[in-house]
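Two proteins, back to back. First:
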Amino acid sequence: MDFKTLLFFFFSAILLFAALRVITAKNPVHAVLNLILAFFTAAGIWLLLEAEFLAMVLVMVYIGAVMVLFLFVVMMLDIDLDRLRQGFWRYLPLGAFVGLVVALEMALVLGGEYFYSSADANLPAAAAGVSNTRELGALLVSRYVYPFELTAALLLMAIVAAVALAFRGKKPARRVDPAEQIRVRAADRLRIVHMPTETDDAPPAAIDDQPEKDA
């Protein structure tokens, strides 16, 4: 067993452990952190398969943006864990069936050399100096241009739908017109109001007009 195969099994063991902890962790923050570990490990496996572009996209997009957003939302929301655990056993058969289907598909892909003919299994290696990023871009704009455009349209529709669902009506805003402020005169800013003076209806106090006697 060479060193590359040893690294593959090492990363695969960490990936399986992290994926298991994602669905078994009681704390949602721990589940998100284990999912980040799973993505990092999957990026390492893709590097071993010489898919550097996919590994870079996985780290930059999913871990750098999506998972940080997930972690922020999970930490800000008050999640009721007891309520989430109530429907766990009810959805367990469906989850087990979906897991078995995914495992079967992965087994068919990874064990292709045992299920297909030797002519299909022994594919020629990539030529030296060929960029897989350039080849991927060429396939997206040539052979898979219609699925690529359809995916872009679906993502655009999802963004518009999310904005429409979150829109709660136009809020009234105070607008200031600088032209009207400049045209204001001094007389318009100051207004003098004449008000009648207040009078006291009470009789004036009696004043002793007699001079004081000298002591």
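And the second protein:
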Amino acid sequence: MRIAIIGAGAIGCLVAAYLKEKGEDVTLVGRSGAVKAIRENGIIVSGIRGNLLAHIGISDTLNYVPDLAILATKTQDINSVLQDNSHLLQNSLLLTIQNGVRADSLVARYVPAQKVISSIVMFGATNLEPGKVVHNFEGSWVLGSFFNPNPSESLLSVSLVLDKAFPTIISKDIKGMKYLKIFVNASNCLPAIIGKSMQEVFSDLAVSRISIAIWKEAFRIIDYIGIDLVSLPGFPLENLTKLTSMPSELAAQVFSERMKNLSKEPLYGSILQSIMRGNLSEIDYINGEFVRLAEENSMQAPLNKILVEMVHQVEKNNRFFSKEDLIQKTKELI
């Protein structure tokens, strides 16, 4: 299987390196900085599995028809990527890995829906320099389809290949899992606002209380609309329901302990990583998704709305807020 990974960030580089190590035919498509660094030095992986150097072909445009294209960009970049490359992807399988629930519908505007495979990555990685990746923690890779709940032969074939890098799981309800994954990612906005690692940020119980409030607000919206959330590997639905039903102080303590011990290496989250690399983040597809759902159903999500606005201010001004600023701006909503 010829595999093109479009996007040379944390997940794209990590997957490329591990698949290459297992003998797969992998190439990367990335931005100019990543192209230069990876051509010169390869992909340098460190972290939980030790050190790995992988030499992989990379270019700034896709120049062949792959059997499988892994779309490892942010959701906001999907349109531009597929406008440039969809003519080469009409007969390829296309795997989405984006956070949120919008990616698959966007991709299906450009390629046949039956060719789109949805996925959720439960492993974590950090990429702050082109071509250098820290593998922070292990996890499985969930595969499924937004458009066909029954696993196709193509999906099974892809799962066998990707299983060489991370253990794969096939889901018949990946949409419900993706909505729960938004909750998993929703607290990533807080390190992005303050500009510090998740371990540093969530050591503070006042900030951890904001995380619990994010979940409580979002869970009310999801419950009112009637969206069915489905447990993820490593994150059962009861993690959410138990913490949102606890007293906030106790829930914040439990949440803080989990987040502080998630990785030995500093963990920044996808939103802050984008900002640190000078790119726009995917905040509109994470916390912004809760805001959108609330507005569409004549509800309000004031906490998530203000956090989305704060992230956009950080992106615009290239200046982080202090922890005190964050607490002050959200205190009436906690």
